[in-house]
Each structure stands twice: as structure tokens, then as C-alpha cells.
User: What shape does this take?
Amino acid sequence: MAATNTQSWSFRLTPTRVLLFILAGMAAAIALWRLIVGLGPTTNLNDQWPWGLWIGFDVLTGVALAGGGYSTALIVHILHINKFNEIGRSAMLTSMLGYLLVMAGLFLDIGQWFNFWRPFVSWGYHSVLFEVFWCVSLYTTIQVIEFGEILTERVAKPWHKFFRKIMPFLLIVGVLLPTMHQSSLGGLYLIEVGKLHPLWWSPFIPLFFLMSSFFVGPAMVAVETSLAGRAYNHQVDLKVLRGLAKIGGTLMVIYLALKAIDFSNRDAWQYVFAGGLESNMFLLETIGGVIIPLIILISPWGKTRSGLVTYGALTALGVVVNRLNVVITGMVNYYGPGYIPAWTEIVVSAGLVAGGILAYCFIVENFNILGHHEEHEAA
Amino acid sequence: MSKGVLVDLTKCIGCGSCTVACKLYNDNKFEKDSPAIGENPKLTDENWTIVTAKKTEKDGQPVWRYVKQQCLHCEHPACASACFAKAFQKTEEGPVIYYPHLCVGCRYCMLACPFDIPKYQWEKSFPLVTKCQMCSGKVAKGEAPACVSVCPTNVMTFGERDEILALAKKTIESDSKYVKHIYGEKEAGGTDWIYISDVPFEQLGFRTDVTTTPLPEYSHSFLKYTPYVIVGWGSLLTGMYLYTKRRNKIAQEEKKDVHL
Ligand code: SF4
Ligand code: SF4
Assistant: This one.
């Protein structure tokens, strides 16, 4: 493939990329400023609203969208469904970058950032956040090591054999950990009983978070491969995308059914069509982000590339809206309106994404990511 | 046993001495734009206790009542269970106290507290969470917290929680002016600071929809599955991994056979 030993590193600078660089640079500057002066001057967070965009978007949404890595790892490497091999690497790369950005976002959000390692030794196991923290940091590490397999194809080659040997172990742990922290991110909100709006608070919120993080995987793959496909002239076979989307779609149907049962159990249907901010946002997330994508999948349009990309984009947006609804919309009723993200918060969030895209492009252009067909012998 | 404080809201005249005593004892600043008493005081990083003047109604007549607010020192504190760094801990004597050097600053405690007590030092570079510590040093010596002893009308009674609870029950039973509800007896699974009043608590701004289940149990109901998930799901994944890999290998070999 493109990356062989003698070739030099390449990175084209296009106008879009320059823009992304500027955005990432601005974000870095604001981040530095925030680390120096604290959260008050650089965010709109306050005593009423201790968590905002950075937790809602950078962390909760970031982890969910990066979930594509573990659902594809499960499908490709654990279930060994070989026809999906070719998307394995790019999905895992996006996921790794996603998690690195989540870690960066989290780091910016915590007040005593030099104390970030504390929970490792304090052992506050009674907190759901403890599980989140351990799993997310371990998983990020694992993904970086997994990436070592790709990295050593080009640099530090003697290590390559070693990485291939440990891959199976990494892959299994790499599915186990996300299963835990995707659900525990929802579990964080169990203690918000009576605060989080009943459209979102549920004893099953961990399960809902887990399921949505899983079905957003195929959706992300559809979007990401079509973007990368256009940029790098490497189109993934439609059958592959369609097959993945079917797995995702099935899960979305189960998700809807479970939501319905849960609403009946808790007598929460009354809120669904009650009008007002909460019910509108809920309908947006459910109809726009789950039901319409499902209809697209069933319709003939769902067999075309544009149909699949639309399904993917809508599903991913639906999950974004869902996570922001939990962190922000669902709390408005209890805390009152008192928080709108500051421009600095928005720029940092956007800059993190921009940085991620740049890193993705660099890695794809220099390592064997796209069109990696053969199944690893060791895996 | 846990110490606690009984607050009899019928006795409070809203003088605010307790808020001053609190600031002096804990070395907290007085801030002009965020007063600790009046009609709109706010708990902040410098106001660990406040007294709100509330115009309300009793028997059709407008009346003023004064509500002292601070951490309720829950028997099963949500803040402590939410903290993954153990920066909040409940002491044996009752106070729920904060260890700043352990805090990471995630603010999950602020979200977890059912009474929205913990506040943050937003303006500082390295902010800490703040809240009433029930003058834990004094309590450890058997003394009442600073606010309690300074009150001119004896609104607050400091003692063993079961004793003050018994006192609260006796008081509301023996005098018909009291509403038949001891706030904090059951809220959030029980708190060490409890309140009695002659005006319904919701009229005074108390959150009356708080669950009576201790909040840590909500997290526990989820976390208790973790070990099973690790073992069960972990072995299932390993099993599937080995099985499907072998299946593919056999399928490949069979294909080869056909070809030959
Ligand atoms: S009132 Fe809030 S801050 Fe105080 S102990 Fe209970 S949960 Fe913690
Ligand atoms: S902000 Fe500090 S005290 Fe509160 S939960 Fe986080 S680490 Fe614990």
C-alpha cells in the first residue's frame, strides 16, 4: 500500500485544512487560557449548571460516537465476519482519535487538573464515575496500543510481531471495557433521580446509553467511509455498509421497543406529546434520529450510497441530540434556564473535532488504514 | 452514633447571626453582591449557610418565615457516594466533610446532591468545592456547630440524631400549630439536620419530592452488576472469538478441499 518504508511522510495542505488548523489553534489557545485562569472566566458554567457543553458534547457525545470502534471490533474481530474486514481499521482509528479527544475535553473540564490521577489511588468504587474513569482511561490506552500494530508496520518494525501476538487479548478487553463505560455514562445519571426529566431518567438509562452507542457505530462507519471515500478515492463496498446498517437497524428497533416498555412501566407517555421544550427535543431525537433512519433503511433508497449516508448522518445526529438532551435539556426543568454555552466553550469543542480530523487525515495518508483487506493471522 | 441538629423554623426571627458566626468560624468572605440573608440570598462558595426571608401564608393570613439552609449532612450522602476520589466522606460523628487535596474538580457531587448544596469557586484558577462542614472540629469534641450556639432564640438543638428526632416528634405532636412532617426524617434516606415548621415545607421552598430511598442505592443498583459483566461478558467474548475463528478456519480448509 501507500506507506512503505522508503517513502517520506506526506501531508497535503488544502484550504479546508488550513481552516481546521486555525480552529484547532484557537482552541488550544483558549484551552491554555482556561488552564491558567480557571473555569469561571472562560465558560458560562455556574453553581446551578456545573456541567455543560464540554461534558455534554466533548465527553458524553464523544464517547458515544467513538463507540463505532467497539461495535466494529466486535463484529469484525470477535465474530470474525470477514466481509466487514475492510472497514475494521478505519473505524478503530476514528475511535482511538475520538477517545483521545474525550480525554482532552475531560482534562479541560476538571478544576484540579493536576489531580487527575487521584481516582486511580483513591478507590472511590461506590461512584459510577469511578467506573467511567477507569474504563475510559484503560480503553484509550488499549486503543493506542492496538494502534501500535499499524504503527509498527512503518516505524519500530521489530516490535510488529509482538503487537500482533497481543492483539487478540487487546481486542477482547477492547470490547469489554466500552460495554462497561458506555452504559456507566448513562449510569451517572441514575443518581439524578427527580432532577433529570422523566423523558430521559429511567432505571434503564445505562442500557439505553449502551444500545445507542452500539447502533451509532454502523451509522458512523457509513458517514465516515463516504467522506473518506470521496477524499481518498476509496469507496467501501455498498454491501458491507448495508450489512452493518442492518445490524445497527435491528438494534434500533429493539431500542425503540425497550423505550416504549419503559415508558409504559413508568407512566411516562404523558410527557412525550406534552409539548414544550422537553417533549419537542425528545421527539426530535427519536423521530429524526431513530425512526426516520429506520424508514430510510427499509425503503429502496436505503440500498443506495446516498441513502445510507443520510441514514448514518441522521442516526449520529440523533445520538448527539440525545446526549445533549440528557446533560442540558433534561435538566432545564429542575435547574431553570441559566446556561448557554459561551463562545469559548463552543470554539474549544469545535477545535477538538478539527484537530481530530487533521490527525485522521495525516494517519490515513501515511499508514495502511483504508483498504486493509486481509484478516490478521493472529486475530 | 451520628450527631444532628433540629431546626425549629417557628422560632427563627431571621436575624442572621448564624450566617455571621459561620463566616467567622470558617474564615469566609462577606460579599456585598451575594448576601447571606434577605429575600434572595444564595448559597455560594463564601456562603455556607443562608437565611431566606419568605413571605407566605398561614390560615389565610400573610406571614413571614425565615429558613436557614446549609448542608443537611445526609445519613447516606449522595455527594460522598458520587465522588470517585473520596474527597467527601461521612465521619462517625455525623458531619460530611471535604478533603480538598483529594478533589479532582469534576463537580459530579454538585449534580448528585439532592439539595444542591455543594458550590464551586468558579473564579479561582484551581477551584475547590465548598459546603458546610458542620464545624466538624467542634462536633468531634462534642461541641455544637458555631451557628447553633450563637442563635439568640434557640432555633437549633444539637444532639444525638435519635434524641433530636424524638424531640421533634414530641414537639409536633404536643402543639397543633406544627405541620405533621419532620423534614429530613426520611428525605434522601434520612438526614442529620432535620426541620419542623408551622407552614408546609413546600411553601418555604423545600424540595418535597426528594426520594426516600438513600441515593447511593441508585448507583449501587447499577454498579453491583459490574463484576458479573466483567466475568460473564468477558468469557462470552473470548468464547465467541475462539469459536468463530475456528469456524472460519475450518470453512477455509473445506473450501480448499473442494478445490483440490
Ligand atoms: S445535603 Fe448534599 S452536600 Fe450535604 S451531605 Fe447531603 S448530599 Fe452531601
Ligand atoms: S468535584 Fe471533587 S469532591 Fe466533587 S465529586 Fe468531583 S472529585 Fe469529588
